[in-house]
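Title: Prediction job returns without error message
Component: structure pipeline
Severity: low
Priority: P3
Assignee: unassigned

Description:
Job completed but the reporter wants confirmation the result is attached to the right record. Sequence as submitted:
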Amino acid sequence: MERKFIRRLPLPTRDNWIWWVLIAGTVATVIIGGIFLTGLALRASGIWPAASPTPTPTSVPTVTLSPEQGCPGAPVTVSGSGWPVGEVVTLRLAAPAAYGSAAVDFMTATVGFEGTFTASLSIPVVRPWSEFPAVRVQVVSTTSTVTALFDLISAPVEQSATATPRATATPAASATPTPSLTPTPTPSPETAAWRGEYFNNITLWGAPAVVRDDPDLAFDWGTAPPVAGVLADGFAVRWTRVIAFPAGVHRFYVAADDGVRVWLDGQLLIDEWHGAEPRIYSADLALVPGDHTLVVEYYEVWGNAGIRFWWDRPDAYPQWRGDYYSNIRLSGEPVLTRNDVSLHFVWGTGAPANGLPADKFSVRWIRTLAFDAGTYRFRVLVDDGARLYVDGVRVIDAWANGAAREVTGAVSLTGGDHEIRLEYYDAGGDAVIQLTWEKAGAFDNWRGEYWPNRSFSGLPTLVRDDATLDFTWDTGSPAPEIPSNSFSARWSRTLDFATGTYEFRVLVDDGARLWVDDRLVIDGWEDGGTRELTVDLPLAAGAHTLMLEYYEGFGQARARLTWEKITPSFPDWKGEYWPNVNLAGAPVLVRNDRKIAFDWAKGAAAVGLPIDQYSARWSRTNTFEAGLYRFSAVADDGVRVSVDGVRVIDAWTTSAGDEVHTAERALSAGQHTIVVEYFEGSIDASIEAWFERVGGMPTETPLPTETAAPTATATPTPPPTALPTVTPDTPTPTLTPTLTLAATPVMTTTTPTSTVYINEVMPVVGRIDWDEDGAVELGDAWVELYNPTDEALSLEWWVLEVEGIEHYGYKLPLGTVIQPQGYLVITSEEAGLPFVEGRLRLRHEAVLFDAVELLVLEADRSLSRDAAGEWQGGWLPTLGALNLPPEAKGRAR
């Protein structure tokens, strides 16, 4: 194997070192030169980029504090440098490392163009911050966190207005204060809101953390921050506002937890710059008219936070001055003082006002009033406790827990001013307190009682002697303590009447009820415009008690009661009612009844009558055309019908009301008197009675005859319910059975041929505009009448009515004429009648000409008479034309 040797160079020595230097320099020159030449070549080719300038070393972010130590609450300036330009940094307070991880983000700051920022804050005065030996102030960005240490050198110091001596707040009962004559020469315009400046320290130092407009100065923050960006503890606020005041003495109030100061035009009115539980402070100041500047300063140390500021005039209690306390002992400063128009409160489970608890509160009301000499009885409705004092003397003492109850006390008063003081507390649950009084024997006229509600709830707010019962309040109210809407009143009085019938008239807007001797005789208890309600009432000679109840809903208010003795008239049926079953004695009620069709069920026929064991008599005299008439009655219990003094129906016995009693009688042309008598035994009560013309006068004479019997065998047997009960002694000839073939119009089976009848009813509107007014409406439903005679007939004052629906009837107007073989169409809207259920009747005065049972049909279908006169349901409607069955095509219009 060939061995190769490498010759070793001799190590540098004292003799050859020069040679070694020359050799090293030559080698370095060659290497550097090569690199340089290579770089030039690469740079020329674009592969090696041009060399950049030498970079400036990056600055290190710093934070400094000024001062670096102090007591909690002291203002601190935080300065930063070397931070990225434009970055938003967060200032954070943190506990020392040995004390846990307590930290709070205090505020943010933006770094300026030179990499600097400045911010102001204060060290919280609340635990745990005030107990640390130091607090770390950290500035945090997206890339760095820098900490500076602030040494705490003492415990928190209670702040005070060091530069301003404390002003003496004028007490409420002080002498007239000196007017403030220091408004600015050119006052600023009145501002609509408070300018609120919120600071993250309790000394109002530095720039505010938040500035905003606050509409009202009434806050209850509890333990929460007042606004985002402000601490929950250790903060302060300054509010400023310019307000126009009238001339006079004003009382300023502020309730605060903790410290508060109030300035007006630079004058310190209230100076309570210290920690405190919630308290109310006040000061009086006389003002010249014009704009005045108010400044309210407040700070919160720790715990709950809240402030409320308001003012009033010391003479601002024209009614009751109410002081409200958040305890049941009337102790401390009131949370609220206000004017209460009346002492008539039903708070239920709610609070009397914002800022007061719903339970465990108390109130004291004071008022000075002028009284006439006399004895007065005071009434208090209370839940829970109440005490009433008159001139400092206790008149009512009910200072104990208890449900709502009325307590009273009487006192004799001399004429003149007297102080009334009512004290109240609520322990829990419902809260009710009401006060009223009246003078013994004070009502020479109407005793008027007024409530601030529609339901006579609680004690009346006002009781007074009203000379007349004729009031037009329009949109006003009866008295200042009564609202203009939703109030009620009750007037009562006892008067002597002579024997006779009296017409009582009530003019009312909205609801009214009239009672005579505890009997309801007018009941208009519903909303409505001004209208007159009347009743004719027979009264025996002697004293009678009248009571009118009234309520106002909304809008106009009107109440009037008048009466006069009259000769009664009864255009329909004269109805007389007795509280016994045998029509004995004088009736307790006499009235006009439009028809005899009542279903009282288990109730009484009228207020003042018993629900059982009563009776009634209806009578009327009518002009009849000659003909045969059928009289019908059905009742639970007994009924009797007489015509011209002759009893034609006699069912004077207990009955379930399931049988129709009928009798037929031929009447000559002229006037005839009909009397219907009724009694109710027990349980259900109802009666219906009517009559109808069923044919012309009989031509056979004399009647009856022995030869008439075979004729009767050839006629259909009438229904079992059609059994006449004509008395044997009637002078009217006995009618032949053939006359019973005439169909009753109530359930007619043949087309009438002698006069107008109902031809067609279209009850349910679908898609057709039947009256062609451009709108399809429910009121387009219609009924069609037909005149089968050869002469035009007047229908003025004829009546269309739906039986069983009280007060539903349409009287055809003057000038209404139906042509021979002509049709007359009446819409539901015109008549004000529904045509979907019940029995539709056509009558003139007391004569019933036609009737039909209404049906609910398919929309745009009719109830029609066919060619045989029978009613058919579901036919195609035909206005003014022959009625068409369902299979007929098209429809006639």
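Comment from assignee: result matches the submitted record. The mean pLDDT is 80.
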